[in-house]
Specification:
single chain, alpha/beta, disordered N terminus
Length: about 475
């Protein structure tokens, strides 16, 4: 009888198989590293041969630009080609070359650009133009404030909160941003593009809501309305957020960032603004589900105050829509949505406010937050906001808090959180408005903001804002 023999070959045992896998991975890593090095050489090493370059560069002048090296401190010369245009007023375009060709090897591309009406300066990489593109929604965001946003966190958080977000001349943030723009413009040209955003519009079946009577009738008669009201809050929010929306730019203006932004801001106010004859005794402010910051998170007590008081009630021109000592009613449950992720920096501020709203306690908490290593690491990894953001948000609510006599939270489910911020908790809107009416006395002027997005308010004055159907 023949006994079958088991054939054992190299690589069939588990130990030998793991050796071969390890060798294969090591060889693959080494090969990728070598390929990466060679690829960089092939891409960034200009070719030494220059066939027919003399004929291609006819009409172009060699230019040597003297430069002080920041690495060695020694003077160096940078080579470039200058291709002037017959029109002395022709714009100058900087062409930055590379990809295995010398500057002479890109002569055919330089000629193509020259044919478009440009005088061309071709050379290696050098920053020669800064362009900002932003929407003109407030004086503190967009335009030259984009340049301020590229500075360090302490510089961004330095300006005090202005009473209005629509008065550029009275905005400390805009003043500092204009100084940054001016300093940058001494070295490089700075151009700004500011967009005037139109009203956001619903699409589909409810297109035109709530301004179109047909869309309102369609919404009130729809059987889905009753079904939507019976859904849990999370499912209802998901269904409403799934509705199609359209947002377009009504105009685009270009020029110096601060100038273009100011002009676009005025046009946006004229397009979307609402007119009030005089300030109101009570203003009811509905709040959205999520904060305006990235990453988007549910509102917590701090961001709720920042959205209602620091954003909605600072969108005015001429004078504040709230009379001195008036009442603000915020519609929110003020749930403490503090966690260990993006909400963690807000928890630091809330704990300081809960212990006492004295400026010294908040300043101490702010100094500790800016040095908090875990929060800074989460910010740099894109997992949370900067630790100073909650303190800037709370300071943004300061102008309205100093003007208002009281802030009532309608629908509050956390009375402790409301009192920690200095607010008055209330079970519902009816109770909150009854409290506000009792404080105001006989003549009680009440206003309700439709939100979000919140409309700019023009109170008194001579600003001409024509009513337009969105």
């Amino acid at each position: 009888m023949t006994t079958p023999m088991r054939m054992t070959t190299l690589g069939k045992t588990p130990r030998s198989r793991s050796r071969w896998v390890a060798l294969l991975v090591a060889a693959l890593v080494a090969g990728c590293a070598s390929l990466d090095i060679e690829q960089r050489k092939l891409i960034f090493m200009p070719s030494q041969s220059q066939p027919q370059y003399e004929t291609r560069t006819q009409g172009m002048d060699d230019v040597w630009i003297e430069h002080q090296s920041t690495e060695t401190g020694k003077p160096v010369k940078l080579h470039a080609l200058w291709y002037p245009h017959s029109d002395p007023m022709a714009p100058i375009l900087l062409y930055l070359h590379g990809a295995r060709r010398s500057v002479q090897g890109n002569a055919f591309r330089i000629r193509h650009v020259h044919e478009l009406g440009f005088a061309v300066l071709a050379r290696y990489w050098l920053l020669m133009l800064v362009v900002t593109v932003s929407a003109a929604e407030t004086a503190d965001r967009g335009g030259s404030a984009v340049l301020l946003g590229a500075c360090d966190a302490d510089t961004i958080a330095r300006p005090a909160a202005a009473p209005s977000l629509l008065e550029p001349a009275a905005s400390p943030t805009r003043t500092l941003a204009a100084a940054v723009e001016e300093a940058l413009a001494r070295d490089v040209p700075v151009v700004g593009v500011s967009l005037v955003l139109d009203h956001p519009r619903l699409t589909g079946r409810y297109r035109g809501y709530p301004w179109s009577p047909d869309s309102v009738r369609s919404a009130t008669r729809s059987p889905l309305r009753s079904l939507l009201n019976t859904l849990p809050g999370g499912a209802r929010r998901h269904a409403l957020q799934a509705m199609g929306r359209d947002l377009q730019a009504a105009a685009a203006l270009a020029g110096p960032p601060s100038v273009a932004h100011a002009e676009a801001l005025l046009r946006g106010i004229a397009l979307r603004g609402a007119r009030l004859d005089e300030p109101l005794d009570t203003i009811l402010v509905p709040l959205p589900w999520k904060a305006p910051h990235q990453p988007r998170q549910p509102l917590n007590p701090v961001t709720a105050a920042a959205t209602g008081l620091g954003l909605a009630l600072r969108l005015w021109r001429e004078q504040s829509p709230l009379r001195e000592g008036g009442t603000v009613v915020l519609m929110h449950d003020l749930h403490r949505a503090f966690g260990h992720g993006p909400q963690a920096p807000f928890r630091v501020l809330f704990q300081a406010l809960r212990d006492g709203r004295e400026p010294g306690l908040v300043a101490t908490a702010r100094a500790g937050a800016r040095e908090d290593a875990p929060l800074l690491t989460a910010y740099r990894d894109g997992r949370g906001p900067h630790p100073l953001l909650p303190f800037v948000d709370w300071e943004a609510a300061g102008p309205v808090l100093r003007r208002a006599g009281r802030v009532i939270v309608a629908g509050c489910r956390d009375a402790g959180a409301a009192r920690a911020l200095g607010f008055v908790p209330s079970h519902n809107v009816a109770t909150a408005l009854e409290m506000a009416r009792g404080v105001a006395g006989g003549s009680h002027r009440l206003g309700v903001l439709l939100a979000p997005p919140y409309a700019p308010l023009i109170v008194g004055g001579e600003v001409d804002v024509e009513p337009r159907e969105p």
